[in-house]
Amino acid sequence: MKCLERAAWLKSEKIVIFLLLLLTAAVRITFLLNFETLTGDASSYVIQALEIFDDPSILCNFSNISSTLFQYALAVWIYVWNDHVIAPRFFSLIFGVLLILPFYGTVKIIFNPRIAFFSCIILIFYPLQVIQSCAPSSDAAYYFFIFCCLYYFFKYKSDHLVQNLYLSAFLFNIAAVLRFESWVFIPIFFLFLSFKNFKVAFVFLILTMILPGLFLLINQMQQHDLLYTFNMSGRTSMKSILEGGLTYDSRLLSWFFLLCKSTGNALTIVGCVGIFSSIILRRHFQLAIFFIVLFIALTTNSVLLRMVHHERYSILLGILLIPYAIFFVNEVVLFFRIKHKLMLLFFVILPMFDFGFVAFNATLTMPTILQLITPDMKQVSHWLKGNVAYNEKFILDNDHFDALGASIFLYSGLLPRQCCILNNFSAEDYKIENKEKFPIFLWSMKPTYLLLNTSSHLQRVLKFNLGRKKFYVWGITFEFLRYQDMNAFGQYLIYRLSY
After folding, report:
1. pLDDT digits (tens, 9 = 90+) for 232-243
2. Are the C-beta atoms of residues 208 and 186 closer than 8 Å to each other?
3. For the sheet containing 394-397, what is the strand order?
């Protein structure tokens, strides 16, 4: 009797979901504790959140490119947990772990519990989602809220409880201002509902456009351009591609090949076959529509040179492929009458070989993360923390990759009002496009320290004699204090400025 009770306990769905959550948390916490993800854009998001402390007004901190909602949520989290490095990463980790719940629920509604379980196993070890779960950007939160929206949407389609539809619309609004690519799903929701009840579909359409509409309105108020976010993003991408600053794949199936790199060949190919199979069989195809629409939208933007091929943007596509890969394998199992557990377990193991390739491929995110945060960088951060007083300011010149500046600042633990980070891409914003304007900028800010990177745009403009220990120029005395070699990222020379 006790054995039977134990077996029933282990078969409980709640216990299975709890164990999946534990495994998800274990994988992501292990990654977070062993690898650094506070680099590039992720660092800039944390800095923007810290700037909210000085002036919390919404219009002042409205960002056309990244999520304003995420910045405020992150700012509150950092305020509660006063840490600039670990706290932001744990904030994303919470959403990365909790994603399992709506993902399992959505796949279960559309397919069945078996496919949902094996899909979750693959998602737990999906490399890029693991990385984004530990990086302080809006991505992990976006995946969580978009799948919460999908869960309640499909739940409404099965039980027709109107409160589920309201919840879906509310959660979609949050997802829509976390990542703007989700806006392409709005007409899909409308079409799904309009076949049964046009009035309900129209109401849902209006509800899903509340925060996107407000976002466009603020764009109009601030930039006098309703579509400023999308126009500016397109112009920036086109400029980078045409100037050769970024690698660009002009093939029509470029996003398919990117998926093979970022998700693995086995999962991508079998998942795509599963999507076509579901459409042909007219079974479980609802989620496939979202994959196809997003894939077409990304492809169209790339063909028009309005979007670069970054593996970060392929993560949602990869997550949507997972249940269809399991679905196809399950159909093969049924057709050949193979044991379910053996075949499905084999398919769960098979992508792990691809995941190993994805995790350590030099063209992808993981090695970049491992290379950027170095002991040399942390030594510069520790020097800043120990030498810059509360009432002093400093200029932090970025390396030629614009990779280290934000991370050095965050590891120093200093405040945004004390620092000005000079990025090479936006050099004209800081008056360093020519040697005559930079002194005016220095006198207006009056920094106590200048951290000059020898390979930066600033040094190419100033042409300082780096061998001199002390020199006088523009009415300012520059006194050399410290040298730090950053290997491939140039060398930092730290100067004290006296006016």
Report:
1. 888 888 877 777
2. yes
3. 419-422, 394-397, 449-453, 491-498, 476-485, 470-473
| C-alpha to C-alpha distances, 237 to 43, 129, 242, 263, nearest whole angstrom | 21, 24, 9, 24
Which tokens go with 319? 């997550």
The pTM score is 0.88
At CA 397, angle to CA 493 and CA 469, rounded to 5? 25
Distance CA 348, CA 332 (A): 15
**β pairing state of 470-473 and 476-485:** antiparallel
Cβ–Cβ < 8 Å for 496, 479: yes
Neighbouring residues of 237: CB distance < 8 A, sequence distance ≥ 6:
246, 305, 306, 307, 308
Rounded to 5 degrees, what angle do the CA atoms 359, 362, 368 make?
80
Written in H, E and C, the secondary structure of 301-334 is: HHHCCCCCCCHHHHHHHHHHHHHHHHHHHHHHHH
Element (H, E) at 410: helix 405-412
Supply the pLDDT for residue 342.
67
Which three-class secondary structure string do you get for 253-289? CHHHHHHHHHHCHHHHHHHHHHHHHHHHHCCCCHHHH
Beta-bridged to residue 495, according to DSSP, are 450, 480
% pLDDT > 70, the chain? 87
Mean pLDDT calculated for residue range 376-399 = 91
Asked if 450 and 388 count as a contact pair (C-beta separation under 8 A), the reply is: no
- Helix, coil or strand: residue 188: helix
Contact 136, 89 (CB under 8 A): yes
Going by C-alpha positions, the residue among 118, 116, 91, 113 that lies closest to residue 103 is 116
**Which residue, among 163, 161, 181, 175, has the nearest Cα to 210 in the 3D structure?**
175
Q: 145-148 contacts: CB < 8 A, separation 24 or more?
A: 145/171, 145/172, 145/174, 145/175, 145/178, 146/171, 146/172, 146/175, 146/179, 146/182, 146/185, 146/316, 147/99, 147/102, 147/103, 147/106, 148/102, 148/175
What is each CA distance from 361 to 178, 198, 355, in whole angstroms? 28, 48, 10
Tens of pLDDT, residues 258-292: 999 888 888 999 999 999 999 999 899 999 999 99
Tell me 182's DSSP state: G
